[in-house]
Amino acid sequence: xxxxxxxxxxxxSPIIPVVGELIQNSPGTxxxxxxxxxYNPPPEAIERLPQFLADSSNNLYKAVEGIxxxxxxxxxxxxxxxxxxxxxxNCIVVTAGSNMAFMNxxxxxxxxxxxxxxxxxxxxxxxxxxxxxxxxAVLVATDTNYQLRPEAIAQAITAKTRAIVTISPNNPTGVIxxxxxxxxxxxxxGIHGIYHISDEAYEYFTYNGVxxxxxxxxxxxxxxxxxxxxxxxxxGFASWRIGYMVIxxxxxxxxKKIQDTILICPPVVSQYAALGALQAKPEYLQENVGAxxxxxxxxxxxxxxxxxxxxxxxxxxxxxxxxxxxxxxxxVYTQMDAFELVKRLIKEHQVxxxxxxxxxxxxxxxxxxxxxxxxxxxxxxxxERLVQGLQRxxxxx
Length: 397
Known about the structure:
Blueprint: H1 15-24, E1 30-31, H2 43-47, H3 49-54, H4 68-82, E2 90-95, H5 98-109, E3 115-120, H6 124-132, E4 136-141, H7 150-155, E5 161-167, H8 179-192, E6 195-199, E7 225-230, E8 243-248, H9 252-262, H10 268-277, H11 282-288, H12 298-310, E9 317-319, E10 327-332, H13 338-349, E11 351-352, E12 354-355, E13 365-370, H14 376-395
Helix pairs in contact: 4-10, 5-6, 5-9, 12-14, 13-14
């Protein structure tokens, strides 16, 4: 079987387990790597579990697209927060996380050999999903502040293009795309008859008064806009695996075929918990995300600590302004390979970050710094280790 080959050989290996193994081999390492939050789901989520257990029919398969009470709750959330109304033109499909929603979308709209436009730096699981589907990721560079370049995106479209992907707030940069740029991309999709896949997993993580924009709310965009969401980040739901997608109605049959084959139905126990989470008190997000709180609390407060602690790196690397998610993306002024730098930071300075190469940034040395999982004290200590490590490693060549 040594000669056996498959399409998976063309797919990059996920970086998080690789870095995780390096961390395990270096006890005491502070991880600025994986994009998760430190807090737990709201109590309302856990309080829903007895209701799930009380009904023995919940041990059976449920609807492919999700249980009706959760779909109804999501429709209210989408209308009130995102400005997206659910009607005969579109529909919601609950998924096992938004990564699955992206895979559903790619399989539903493409045939092998088709092209999907990604803006670099991209989210690595998006690029991996495109490769798994036998399609090709066409990469378009963002500007020096990681903002979209709509003209360059338009020039990258070919007869094989099926979609343009945007992520805002962005992973890995933390940048929030402007409404004007998102509208331009959305209009380009409408003109060319292709889809706009909008990944909004970090929709609640916006700072400095910046508001989240959902392209699915743009006038006339419902026929070609696919919106992806997740409970993993804002509601501490990472392992519960609940996300959802808003799709044009004409894609519903295709997406149901895909989801029924891969999943049959989203885990029902997690759907009950999600229903409870959506009914959490407003204070839950205010205290944990802290985006609207004054003074800053929660992740917003950790963010301020990280910004202050990164200041000594001026001159050694550049850090683009980022008003969203819980990431900063560093361009390090060195010829060193990014993964080699990551390994040395873990081994010599007990701090872990993610190399930019996994996000498609192969020309230069880039690092993603994640701070969502950190408490205030740990954040300060972790960034101090990162700063000291970069100063010693890069300055000494």
